[in-house]
């Protein structure tokens, strides 16, 4: 049964991924922090609108636990996961933004009992995101990327082909409990899931929980690295320099357009 709560949650894995947005929200007049399971859930209420923001930490268990707490204890009807990812497809470069249409756990393999990637007893490998939420996020991302292009803001050059980042992509995102940091591993992921755009460590777990509870879900990722031998260096640099600026600005636009929440986007991004 679909969940009809109109409260929305934002999750990131690491503080550096949304620190600008978190800083703004912590200072908001009606923000209240709740501690559960070692995580802080920041609740902001404005009129009938409610926003919950939290940090899941890294990996599928952390993400699924956090999503479940948001649904059970904070009664949210929509969850947006934001952060960074490694680019898989050749067309997806550092500084690009990917909005997931569907997510798959690349490390789920109960074959020969079930087809590779299929989550046993759920009868599916891929978990679709909510179209309306994803369209709204993609629209916010497109507006941010267009502003960034016109202002000539610092855009990180793409590791694989040297072009500048700033493209928006929609499609399949892979998740698994592994930081992908060599080209053979990147190619193996693509061979198993042709057309996959990016790889990260949480999104498919959140999408599975949302599917099971009838909660709307969307996942937005900025590409921090190319999931190859330079991934650790690229990830560390992007996380320190750029991740929060991009995610916070896109989320602020999204929240203000879709939910009438948060400060004007230009104050953040
Ligand atoms: N998140 C960001 N970069 C990643 C990578 N290369 N592998 C897994 N998760 C990531």
From TrEMBL:
SUPFAM superfamilies assigned? Purine and uridine phosphorylases
Q: Which residues form a coiled coil?
A: none
Domain Nucleoside phosphorylase: where?
A: 8-255
Is Amino-acid biosynthesis found in the keyword set? yes
Could you say which enzyme class this protein belongs to? Answer: hydrolase
Q: In which pathway does it act?
A: Amino-acid biosynthesis; L-methionine biosynthesis via salvage pathway; S-methyl-5-thio-alpha-D-ribose 1-phosphate from S-methyl-5'-thioadenosine (hydrolase route): step 1/2
Among InterPro entries, the record links this protein to: MTA_SAH_Nsdase, Nucleoside_phosphorylase_d, Nucleoside_phosphorylase_sf
One GO MF annotation is:
adenosylhomocysteine nucleosidase activity
Name the chain's protein: adenosylhomocysteine nucleosidase
Q: What is the lineage of its organism?
A: Bacteria, Pseudomonadati, Pseudomonadota, Betaproteobacteria, Burkholderiales
